[in-house]
Fold this sequence. Notes:
The complex is a heterotrimer. By secondary structure, chain A is of the alpha/beta class. In chain A, 40% of the residues lie in helices and 16% in strands. Chain A has a single domain, classed as Lumazine/riboflavin synthase (Rossmann fold). Chain A is built from five helices and four strands. In chain A, α2 (21-30) packs across α5. The longest helix of chain A is centred in the middle third of the chain and has 18 residues, at 81-98. Chain B is an alpha/beta fold. Chain B has three domains: 2-109 and 158-169, no CATH class; 111-150, no CATH class; 182-306, no CATH class. Helix content of chain B is 32%, strand content 15%. In chain B, the strands form two sheets. In chain B, strands 1, 2, 3, 4, 5 and 9 form a six-stranded mixed β-sheet that branches. A three-stranded antiparallel β-sheet of chain B has the order 6-7-8. In chain B, β4, α3 and β5 (99-104) form a beta-alpha-beta unit. Chain B is globular, with a radius of gyration of 21 Å. The mean pLDDT of chain B is 90. Chains in contact: A-B, A-C, B-C.
Amino acid sequence: MQVENKTFKPTIVAFCCNWCSYAGADLAGSARLSYPAEVKIIRIPCSCRLNPMFILKAFQRGADGVILCGCHPGDCHYTTGNYYARRRMTTLFSMLNYLGIEKERTRVEWVSAAEGAKFSAVMNDFVATITALGENKKLEDLRCKK
Amino acid sequence: MQEIMKQAKLKAEELLTKGVVNRVIGWTEGDFSYDCSPATFTLDNLDKFVYTEFCGANLSKYLIEESKKEGKILVFLKPCDTYSFNQLIQEHRIKRENIYVVGIECRGKVDIDKLRAFGIDGVLGCKTEGDKLICDTIYGEKTVDKVDVMLEKCLSCKGKKHVVYDELIGEEVVEEPKDRFGMVAQLEAMTEDERYKFWQNELSKCIRCNACRNVCPACSCVHCVFDNPDSNIASKANTDRFEEKLYHIIRAWHVAGRCTDCGECSRVCPQGIPLHLINRKFIKDMNEFYGEYQAGEDTETKAPLNSYTFGDREPHEFDTKEGK
Amino acid sequence: MKKIGVFVCWCGSNIAATVDVKAVVEACKKEPNVVFAEDYQYICSEIGQNKMADAIRDYKLDGVVICSCSPRMHEATFRKTAEKAGLNPYMIEVANIREQCSWIHKDIEEGTEKAIVLARTAIAKVLLNAPLQAGESKVTKRALVIGGGIAGIQSALDIADAGFEVDIVEKKPSIGGKMSQLDKTFPTLDCSACILTPKMVDVSAHEKINIFAYSEVEAVSGFVGNFTAKIRQKARYVDTAKCTGCRACMEKCPSKKSLNEFNAGLDTRPAIYIPFAQAVPNKATIDPNACIKLKTGKCGICSKVCTAGAIDYEQKDQIIEREYGAIVVATGYNIINLDKFNELGYSDCKDVITSLEFERLTNAAGPTKGHLICPSDGREPKKIVFVQCVGSRGLRPCDKQYCSKICCMYTAKHAMLLREKHPETEVYVFYIDVRTPGKNYDEFYRRAVEQYGVHYIKGQVGKVIEKDGHLEVQASDLLADEQLHIDADLVVLAAAIEADDTARKIGTMLTASMDTNDFFTEAHAKLKPVESPTAGIFLSGMCQGPKDIPDTVAQAGAAAVKVIGLLSKDTLKCNACVASPNENMCNGCSLCATVCPYGAITYVDKEFRIPGGVQVRRVSQVNEAICQGCGACTVACMSGAMDLKGFTNKEIMAEVESICK
Lengths: 146, 324, 661
């Protein structure tokens, strides 16, 4: 019963590319631009490293929202990575929504190494959106969510 | 159909006798006439070869293993099967030089379950006459409108043109391609919750028999991720609400841009799950987002997910009805 | 069982103020496999690093997690320490509990809770980490320079002077490029030939430099340190070993009607020719499109007059294959074709010429021996109009959007030289802006205006039409706000420059990226201006964008320094976090290769044991020297055969699961 009374704190997984967005997150930190502690960042070399399986795994294990941050199109450290990521995520997110999953639960944002403020704003907004949306009942794995 | 089958058999016999090929992939009947399955033939068992209204199976996948063997193999491909063939060529999965492709006429194949639903049992054989299907049964001759008993995949046929062949048997009927995306559009028009209910209902029927995977020409990995414990997603049983969704989303994702929409997944699903509606969503999206693309139409064009343009749409820019 | 050690850094109060570091240590101690956990004020300090090294040795740790600032800050430091202590540097994971935790959260409970999750996640990953070894590849100590203009010449000389072999491939019969056609150079007005030809001689005399003139690069394969290039040496129909450059053949050749490219087509040359007096190599070439002997089989006069016996009508193209460690692209530029600029009358009026033609008309070695005349009737021009930005900075389809950069200065040079030599001529320059940044450049331009009385008019020329043997130039003067009609004898167009037409082909060969204008892109616009994003490819001169001679020479030298730096290494260390395929799972489907931006993936047919025999399958291979580790291939791969070292599927999955616990 205690658990139910607690205010809902979503679990958010943020995948950040090493060259732009992870650096943008660091900049948000050094500028002390706060965002909720629910956001946990996983560093990947490039947005094109994000395998849809990671996203689905996160949802299966109880994540309430997944966000991918990468370099702005045209600025990819590897020249073309985020272009592939953009197509992959566009089609995948459309599919998840087609299966009935709220489209707000997935997001892609382009955050450069200089956009600490944007990183913080994006995370604040994303957490607010997911909190309003509530727990991810549609995609959770019943075995693992206590 | 009798005539086409006779020609096909003669062609197989001729090529085997001449030594152009040493094996043939075709269809054979099981205990019942409607029970057609893929089989390999030599001159010794060619009498078992059939080509009937029940030969819906796509034979291209079997070439992955067969074309690696000694000698050339003859394969019969219906128009829709040739797309899968091309796709496998593009992915270097089959050896073209070891294959003799005979394109074979098709006017749509019959779904035995639909026949049964019409109360037609004890089927001994069928033939098409115009729009009608005349069934010879142990209870006598019965006639139905063919369109009512065709396989789902034939109802949304891409057209009757073979995109690749060495030789053709029968005619290539010119036919307007049918609308494949009507049902997908209907689902898109629903609310998120309605869609969720629809899929929850459909996918919860899944018994994870893997038939869809095993029949799919695009799902031909040497080692499937779902059989690989290292992938962290391998799981056999339906132990939770998400497991089957995870399976079907990932399966569709893996064939996205490679799926030729041959419809085999839905044909073989013992639970009758409309799996093609998942694959077609990807196809429809990619057509709308990145321009028309038909996997297997040729062996060169890059699939949409393996290419890009600078001005591609952003991931949040897809339109479906809000589900609030 | 793997033994993991955890360090939690206070970073003074940077972390300790909002994260209870002791609580993090205690939580980590409870994690399986963690045999050691400790906190310290500054782990990056020498004492902190010693503590870390001691723990690695004392506890025989297999992996270390450091909860501290961003890995972008100190990951390299920690890796070095680990390596010194005998632990593979890739068995280190950093949990970012400063930038991504203590600095953004104010509540100590919240901060501590998140820090523990981040620590656990790093532990989960390090448990799956595998020791990685960065591969090495050998370096071929020879450079290829594509293009023999001033950019290529300078790069080649600098590289060769450092002791490395250099091959220059030049498509024309002689090196020298555009600079050899110029008369004087700004802002010092020294003679172009006088400063260029000594360099050309140096090149030909340099024992480390090989010139492949009248040759083109046909194909390039390989990667940084290990390129192989196929060079097509076109048939000259002259044995260069025997030709003495005496030019007797040129005098006697009966086919003299070919346009002389070197003089911008203003006069003609024989079918057998040496492009200009100081050509390097100073060897004759037969133009097969003009030679009567090659076209009809009759003639053969050159062969008769050649005392050296150098003429060889049977000569064939030769393909030479050479290996290189680095490649310098110096393909240069051309001026645009002015056919689409009908309003300026270039195609119709003989007395409308380009600036390059003007250079030849004023050059003492040019078709008129430097005597400036109107090409139409040979009269001396009294009124000359220069038009700037023809095809530059425009928005029409025939225009280039960029500034061609050199035109303002060379037009000032032309105007000034004209007024000096022929003070009686009137000189007008129509411009959009006059752009003269550069040392002594603005002073130079002001001299043209103030000292030499050149009429600079801000405004564009709308039309040039031929009228009674003169050219009527219709233009607007924007400052005076009036329309002008000038009766000119000669109009000189500063045509935009564009990348050489071979650039795109060469860019594709080298997998070097180019912009929409076919200029090569630099690896970083500010910090890596002479490197292509493709490792081992360097950019010199105009191929990268419009620039003048001083800038070109500076860039050529810079590119040479980068090449020297590369060639002075015996081996190259590769990135350790590269893609690596599991061949047992590989379908050989090529999807990975289609998304690889570096062309690092190739395929081989390999035998595999299967029940009852052997099967040959096509499988992928990653060249670790080329792979940069982006991971695009890992997602394109359906079977999961392609994985990325250091960021494996399993490792990332473990991180996901740890966060979502």
